[in-house]
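Justification of computing resources. Each target in the renewal requires a structure prediction run like the one illustrated here; the chain below, 136 residues long, is used simply to show the kind of job we budget for.
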Amino acid sequence: MRLIVLDTNVIVSAGIKPGSAPARLVMDWVLEGQVQAVVSPWIAEEYREVARRVKFRRYGFPPQSLEFLIEESLHLPDTATWSTPGPDPKDIPFLALARTAGAWLVTGNLKHFPEAARNDVRVLSPADYLDHLGEK
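Resulting structure tokens:
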């Protein structure tokens, strides 16, 4: 099974832009069970907190699919440490979980995960991950 950790921006983009690469990845691959998402308690709460923000209400947030996505994800404990600093400390749990799970990290903000901070975690954009899956 393919394992991925979804950055919060992918969840938000999927809800805002139907038909976009993030939406296709979440709706057609993750929610259909072809790719297994991985979450930790911290990341699940991050998804919920961001999805409840007032600025996203006009898009129908939180999306109904969010709780299903969280429930159907592989749940692992929060990972406490990461040896390499990144530009934003709030991004480190995504890298740490991906490494612990042996998963790839999918993000719309590649610059938030510079090569030097990745510690061999594979980080791709939603479009690049779809290309990897063979979707055109």
